[in-house]
């Protein structure tokens, strides 16, 4: 309003014969009218427009070319329209800004709530995992301990029967090895060693796994074959850990084919990754069990610990890769190990 009065004073002091200056000052009235509407809303714009119209009508009287009352009235109406429209648009924008601020505040509150719920779920999930691991470990330990206890009781009951004593001492030894193997696998799962990365000949790893598995199987009905392109580039990984992963997969495949068959280990480069597949001709994994094959202590084998695949999964994950059941069915199962060609920490 102060600027409107200032413009009116300037118009009053300007001689009537300086028509162009009066025309300029009349146009300047729009600036405070529009400014009031933008900054303070339509009500302030309306009040400022009325004041501008009054000043224009009073101060502009007697100026040549602007003495027509109808012209001054139309000019005043335009002041009113400018003040109301700019104010209304400004109010609308402020309302939208306020709504956005409220939406932002609500989103931040929802985000905090989701974060809190997520942390609670993580804690519950950890507790559930600890309970599951504890129950599985207790179950796996209880069976060999029961066998050892029974064997010791029989040996004590029949101390002079050398044949029976030797038989049950063998049972004790077998079950102790089983317990040691179980605890070794469990420690590998619970505290996996950090990979010792280096450029590795993948073909040499596959040949070594094939040789070790063949010696372990010693069954003419079972064949292990390698499919790999010639001159395959070196892959950055931990040689021993990858050998452990692949040997576990191959032995699982062999054990899934009691009547024999062929296990194929293949390697191929796919984009920036190398994919190693282990395919067998076994009966496959039932569909309802596929989602649980990497769960600790889950096994479909009578003598399995249920930790081999979880340990392998953890090793591959530490390499920044993935271990997946790619397909399964009556014609066999395919496990796929996907590794980055070069680790991100590499220079």
SSE layout:
Blueprint: H1 2-13, H2 19-28, H3 30-40, H4 42-59, H5 69-157, H6 162-190, E1 198-200, H7 202-217, E2 222-227, E3 235-237, H8 239-255, E4 261-270, E5 273-279, H9 308-318, E6 322-329, E7 332-340
Parallel strand pairs: 2-4
Antiparallel strand pairs: 1-3, 4-5, 5-7, 6-7
Helical proportion, percent range: 55-70%
Q: What's the assembly state of these chains?
A: single chain
Strand content: 5-15%
Q: Count of DSSP helices?
A: 9
Overall body shape: elongated
Instruction: Give the strand order, joined by hyphens, for the main sheet.
Output: 2-4-5-7-6
Total number of β-strand segments?
A: 7
Compute the CA-based radius of gyration.
Answer: 42 Å
The CA-CA distance between the termini, in Å, is 68 Å
Structural class: alpha+beta
H and E order: HHHHHHEHEEHEEHEE
How would a crystallographer describe the biggest sheet?
5 strands, mixed
Mean pLDDT: 76
Low-confidence stretches: none
């Amino acid at each position: 309003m102060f600027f409107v009065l200032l413009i009116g004073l300037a118009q009053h002091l300007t001689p009537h014969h300086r028509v162009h200056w009066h025309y300029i000052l009349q146009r300047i009235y729009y600036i405070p009218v529009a400014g009031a509407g933008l900054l303070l809303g339509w009500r302030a714009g309306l009040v400022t427009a009325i004041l501008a119209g009054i000043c224009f009508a009073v101060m502009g009287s007697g100026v040549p070319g602007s003495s027509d009352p109808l012209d001054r009235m139309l000019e005043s109406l335009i002041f009113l329209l400018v003040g109301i429209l700019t104010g209304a648009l400004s109010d609308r924008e402020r309302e939208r800004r306020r709504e956005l601020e409220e939406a932002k505040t609500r989103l931040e509150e929802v985000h905090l709530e989701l974060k809190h719920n997520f942390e609670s779920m993580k804690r519950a999930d950890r507790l559930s995992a600890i309970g599951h691991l504890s129950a599985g470990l207790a179950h796996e330990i209880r069976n060999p301990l029961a066998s050892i206890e029974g064997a010791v009781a029989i040996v004590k009951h029949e101390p002079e029967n050398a044949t029976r004593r030797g038989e049950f001492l063998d049972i004790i030894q077998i079950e102790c090895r089983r317990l040691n193997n179980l605890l070794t696998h469990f420690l590998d799962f619970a505290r996996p060693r950090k990979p010792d990365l280096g450029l590795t000949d993948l073909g040499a790893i596959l040949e070594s796994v094939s040789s070790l598995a063949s010696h372990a199987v010693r069954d003419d009905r079972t064949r292990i074959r390698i499919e790999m392109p010639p001159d395959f580039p070196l892959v950055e990984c931990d040689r021993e850990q990858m050998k452990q992963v692949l040997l576990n997969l191959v032995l699982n495949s062999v054990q899934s084919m009691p009547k024999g068959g062929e296990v194929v280990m293949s390697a191929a480069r796919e984009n920036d990754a190398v994919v190693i597949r282990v395919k067998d001709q076994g009966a496959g994994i039932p569909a309802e069990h596929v989602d649980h094959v990497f769960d600790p202590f889950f096994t479909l084998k009578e003598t399995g610990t249920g930790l081999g695949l979880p340990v392998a999964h953890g090793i591959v994950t530490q390499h920044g890769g993935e271990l997946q059941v790619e397909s399964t069915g009556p014609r066999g199962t395919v496990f796929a190990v996907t590794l980055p060609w070069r680790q991100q920490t590499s220079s």
